[in-house]
Design goal:
Distance between the termini: 50 Å
Keywords: ATP-binding, Nucleotide-binding, Transport
Helix content: 10-25%
Number of domains: 2
CATH superfamily of the largest domain: P-loop containing nucleotide triphosphate hydrolases
Pfam family, one: ABC_tran
GO molecular function: ATP binding
CATH architecture of the largest domain: 3-Layer(aba) Sandwich
Strand order of the largest sheet: 6-7-8-3-9-10
Radius of gyration: 25 Å
Number of strands: 21
Protein name: ABC transporter ATP-binding protein
CATH topology of the largest domain: Rossmann fold
Structural class: alpha+beta
Bound molecules: adenosine-5'-triphosphate
Number of helices: 8
Shape: elongated
Length: about 375
Amino acid sequence: MTKEKSVPQLAPSKQTEKNGCGTEGGKILEMSNVTHRYGDVVALDNVSICAQEGEFLTLLGRSGSGKSTLLRIIAGLEEPSQVGVLRIADTDVTGKPANQRDCTTVFQHYALFPHMTVGQNVEYGLKVRGVLEQERTKRGREALELVQLEGKYERRIHQLSGGERQRVALARALVTKPKILLLDEPLGALDEKLRMDMQIELMHLHQKVGLTFIYVTHSQEEALTMSDRVILMSGGTIAQNSSPAELFDSPVSREVASFMGFENIFSGKVLDANDNKVRFELAGFELEGTSNDTTKIDVGMEVYVGIRSEHIRLLSSSEAEHGIPCEHVESIYKGKYTDQVLRTPLGQIQARVWDTTSEVASISKVDWDANHCVVMHR
Ligand SMILES: Nc1ncnc2c1ncn2[C@@H]1O[C@H](COP(=O)(O)OP(=O)(O)OP(=O)(O)O)[C@@H](O)[C@H]1O
């Protein structure tokens, strides 16, 4: 029997309410107050997360933000420096080795056995668990059917494409029916078209098997397409924990807005904050924006405001009674759309236009709707 290692434990705290799942039941993963250091590097700083049964949860973030470390700690491949609670399916797995946790990891580089057939690779986990051959073959074929590789049972790994290899890795992980499937940048090695197709396949696979998926990626497109909930990591902490739509439309900070691609971010001074509307002053203009949490916004305080380029309206001199004056700087052609760069008293503004026939010479002002202007207190 494998010896369980002792890990320093912190007293469980009330952090569970902050981890995105609330206090109700149905949690398949509960993890609180996890800190992890590699020597002097703090890879995770007092992080608490949870996952609901059947949820597609994504850990999103730049390289080095700590997402793989978090996944490896859940899998039991890394032992945290400190941990409060670490439970999978109501079992305390603190200090338990990877093979005693009800989860399986799929890696970017497949980690398949090259000398085995597809079928042998998929059934490997069943073989080491002592499942008899007939049952193994049945379950192996079922798992291959799930990933649409039923005809490739006898193939060798080197006879498969990158996308097919990743599907074999998925089938191999699913065949043992873990409670949680952990996926560490599984589409990272595939070309763009295949990656987009596989996103849809993974989404359908998740719906079909109903397992909890915890998915690591640095791609916001992958996170937004597939997830029920996204945890954005930054510098070993959680920057935002919300639905994909909230993350995209209502970033909680300038840092999140910048990561999520808000092209126009300025700082202004609050004049008034009521319900979710905030009036602020910026370069002598009185403007209005929207905040999800005005309790943190006081009159006179400095706030950040973010507007996506697609929400900037370009006004020609004939229609421009209101708005902010601008001068056209340059047009950047992007195929499906064109980005117009404009000089304004607020600073440079980027506007996205889909109409390639629009006349840039006549642009004299810009404006936007208050509900597309996100106000952030940090
Ligand atoms: N084995 C290690 N030894 C020392 N430092 C490490 C080790 N693994 C990770 N780190 C450091 O810990 C921090 C978090 O790394 P981690 O791999 O978890 O980030 P990540 O968000 O998954 O990045 P990536 O997307 O590049 O994989 C980084 O600063 C990284 O350099």
